[in-house]
Amino acid sequence: MFTSRPIGFVSSPYKDASEVPKGLGAKHEADGVLKILPEFEPGLTDIEGFSHLIVIWEFDRSQGFQLTASPPSDNRSHGVFATRSPLRPNPIALTTVELRHREGTELHVRGVDMLDGTPILDIKPYLSNIPDEKLRRGWLAEAEARKN
Amino acid sequence: MFTSRPIGFVSSPYKDASEVPKGLGAKHEADGVLKILPEFEPGLTDIEGFSHLIVIWEFDRSQGFQLTASPPSDNRSHGVFATRSPLRPNPIALTTVELRHREGTELHVRGVDMLDGTPILDIKPYLSNIPDEKLRRGWLAEAEARKN
Fold this sequence. Notes:
Low-confidence stretches of chain A: none
Number of helices of chain A: 1
Structural class of chain A: mainly beta
Radius of gyration of chain A: 16 Å
Strand order of the largest sheet of chain A: 1-2-7-6-3-8
Number of strands of chain A: 8
Oligomer: homodimer
Order of helices and strands of chain A: EEEEEEEEH
Helix content of chain A: under 10%
Shape of chain A: globular
Distance between the termini of chain A: 45 Å
Largest sheet of chain A: 6 strands, antiparallel, barrel
Mean pLDDT of chain A: 94
């Protein structure tokens, strides 16, 4: 196995988890900057061509894990692997952001839900979608239906 | 930072990287099984409701990293963060699979591109798409256009 290392850090308007929009219908439209460490700049070559990036980051302010979680979008609990709970066996998070522009080692993005200073582990290009008609969203779709 | 730990292992038809479909138009339709360790079974509660899962796994047979990569889908090199190259600063991989059915700790899935025995780090539900009309795919779209 491996020990994680940051490739950069997120500059975000959110200083505390309570500030991040949560629950059904929450929109993630905040602007932020992925500040990549200078030693990794060659790894960003040609990234500007992609409209969306998958950012893999570390839940660095979470401690330990819980195998069931009550997400803010539902009043029922679910297995952690059926949720985006931060209390996971490996504290790995994933956020898809829109790449607005790049300035050297700074990726200016829209859609951050990370806290300011969050370590970034990896960035991958967003390549393809699952066709909407094939997508089932389990308890989340049920919670949305109950709300409506 | 954290040290990764497996939550389970992939059972895959691929024993060697040369067997995994690669390059433009490659289809990932192989069936496989995500065998989750028994201690994590409660974390799978309600996962059956989701048609697609994001599997986060470890490139455990890669050594080191290279900041630029020549992907099998192009004859030009690109920054590692604009590719899915296995030689990354953190050896973290991501595959979206279709969940066919669950038997206890075994998730039977379609669309594996991992090697047999690959350690699984995390599983997250696939929740939403980026609208196709907003998606730009940089060098990959260019390579596809040159091929056609």
